[in-house]
Amino acid sequence: MKLSGWGRYPVLEARVHRPRSMETLQQLVASEPSLIARGNGRAYGDSAINTCATIDMRHLNRMIAFDPASGQLIAEAGVLLGDIIAAFLRRGWFPLVTPGTKFVTLGGAIAADVHGKNHHRDGSFRSCVDWIEVMGADGQVRRCSPQDDPDLFDHTLGGMGLTGIILRAAIRLQPVETAWIRQTTLAAPNLKAAMAAFEAAQDATYSVAWIDCLAAGSNLGRSLVMLGEHAGRADLSPRQALAPFQITSKRKLSIPMDLPAFTLNSLTVRAFNALYYRAGERKTGTRLVDWDSYFYPLDAILGWNRIYGRKGLAQFQCALPLDRSEAGLTALLSEIAKAGAGSFLAVLKRFGKQDSAFSFPMEGYTLALDFPVTPKTLALLDRLDQITLAHGGRFYLAKDSRMTSATLRASDPRAADFHAHRDSHGFTSRFTSAQSERLAL
Amino acid sequence: MELRYEVSVSLHEFDALATDSHEAFVAELPEPPRIAVCAVGLMGQQAESERDVASAARVMRSNYEGPVSILAVLANRFEERGSGTIVGISSVAGVRGRATNYVYGSAKAGFTAFLSGLRNRLSKRGVHVVTVLPGFVATQMTEGMDLPAKLTAEPSEIADAIARAVERKKDVIYVRPIWRLIMLIIRNIPERIFKEIRI
């Protein structure tokens, strides 16, 4: 069947298997020469596509055990983060680390070692993972943790499913008093101000900025910096406090079809960005926001990827080291503003320290943008790659759909080590994705 | 399920075709259910059902005899008690026989008629009967088939629709509204034309 990532680019013809039991999965590993596990298809590019055998893990989605003393949940890889929230928020628990969509599987979150708005404080998804069970090329299941088989653990987090099939994991949830976030919005007129706001907010639990990537000149990098804290019972109105874990469920919008390409042009994007910034400027200050709107604003628009039309969208996300962030971000934003090819969803975020074999984050800043796939934007993305390389940055594989292996190697010396690790375990020909082949991982 | 929904769950082995055992099966349950959902079915292979009487019989028994037998036992219990809800998952294939799966379809047609009769009999006895005609569902039964995405529901959608139907005491539900329209059309094509088309 035709298969793609969330960006719907590239689209490949792939054979998909949907195992419902460990036995079936073991048979697939034994019989398929090469394969890759796939979660809910939220990686943007070709990370979870193997044309010969893509293993859809969503049927292996049982929750196995929960310890209310420690908040540890043991679950199968196909469980969605949204299911975890649905089951445990009402009992006062929330994921410690969550990406910008709740429609990712546990296995996918581990494979991409996803990060959230609290990376500067709590690190990547890795921080909440106690152990992982991985099925190797021999069909054997190994349990790894920072203590047991730390090498496998380290390479599996951020390893994009290339170290075996992630079957189960134990993760720790964090206790919360309510389903609400106390959000503070600051308007930053330019990049310097935005970065200063992040540096001043190192103690905030959550921080993220929406950045107007079409503003140029003295407005370059103008942003709305949004900080968040889990609200306590005392922060709620008397009515909210009656049911602190309940939020009114919103009507979901959905994009029923691909929008024609002209809906998204530099004019509409520029207008949207300017309006959004002005609206945000007026709403600075602190207010209560429910968890769903705060963490997953885009999930409310089902199928938002269709806004970008039939040709799909390409994401760009890089991380820059702290000392070169300002120069690098200035260069990236200038290039984007010059091309006039901005996106609705440009996000800037301060990363904290990260020490792992192949995970994406590094201490510094990360910038994420999306573009409709056109020859013009693909050329722009190549230029953005070069700017990132020139400033010592690297790229997020969960977002990538078009980078070259030379760019990856130049950006990240760990790529060679990761490949060597895979090679030494005989994984390089067994666990492969369209992405791993493109990037020679 | 226990972990997700904070409910207690017990599993009981059940053989739909062992109709002799159904009375005892219900009698041995720890407590009589308030709501019974019957999700029993077997698609079979139409070509095989045409060739082989035994295979055809298995499809008919699995989709009609077995479900009817267990629901008949439950219906009597619910009637005695004067309360309860019975949900039968039937199929749009039972609305009109088509060349591609009429053996399955005929058994489902029988099951739909049974549910309708049961509802008629029990409506004054405090027992509610829901007929579910789900259309395509992404389950093991349809795996590997090339189904149109807009017409194919996830199992969780069916579950949500059933929960709503039980709460709101609906009689017959389609899950995706488009199926109501499709079936309206299919039902109304004159037989003279219907026999000539392949759908």
Short précis:
The complex is a heterodimer of chains A (about 450) and B (about 200). Chain A is of the alpha+beta class and about 450 residues long. Chain A has helices at about 20-30, 80-90, 105-110, 120, 150-155, 190-200, 240, 265-280, 290-295, 320-340, 375-390, 405-410, 415-425, 435-440; strands spanning about 1-5, 10-15, 15, 35-40, 55, 65, 70-75, 95, 130-135, 140-145, 165-175, 180-190, 205-210, 225-230, 255, 285-290, 300, 315-320, 345-350, 365-370, 395.
List keywords for this structure.
heterodimer; A: 441 residues; alpha+beta; Uridine Diphospho-n-acetylenolpyruvylglucosamine Reductase, domain 3; Alpha-Beta Plaits; 2 domains; eight-stranded antiparallel beta sheet; six-stranded antiparallel beta sheet; 14 helices; 21 strands; 29% helix; 24% strand; globular; B: 199 residues; alpha/beta; Rossmann fold; four-stranded parallel beta sheet; two-stranded parallel sheet; 47% helix; 12% strand; FAD-bd_PCMH_sub2 (chain A); oxidoreductase (chain A)
Protein described:
The complex is a heterodimer of chains A (441) and B (199). Chain A has 441 residues and is of the alpha+beta class. In chain A, 29% of the residues lie in helices and 24% in strands. Chain A has two domains: 115 residues, Uridine Diphospho-n-acetylenolpyruvylglucosamine Reductase, domain 3, CATH 3.30.465; 223 residues, Alpha-Beta Plaits (2-Layer Sandwich). In chain A, strand 9 and strand 10 form a beta hairpin. In chain A, helix 10 runs antiparallel to helix 11. Chain A is globular, with a radius of gyration of 21 Å. The model of chain A has no long low-confidence stretch (mean pLDDT 93). In chain B, strands 1-2-3-6 form a four-stranded parallel beta sheet, with helices on both faces. Chain B is globular. Chain B starts with a helix and ends in a 5-residue tail after the last helix. Helix content of chain B is 47%, strand content 12%. Chain B has one domain: Rossmann fold (3-Layer(aba) Sandwich). In chain B, helix 4 runs parallel beside helix 5. Chain B is an alpha/beta fold.
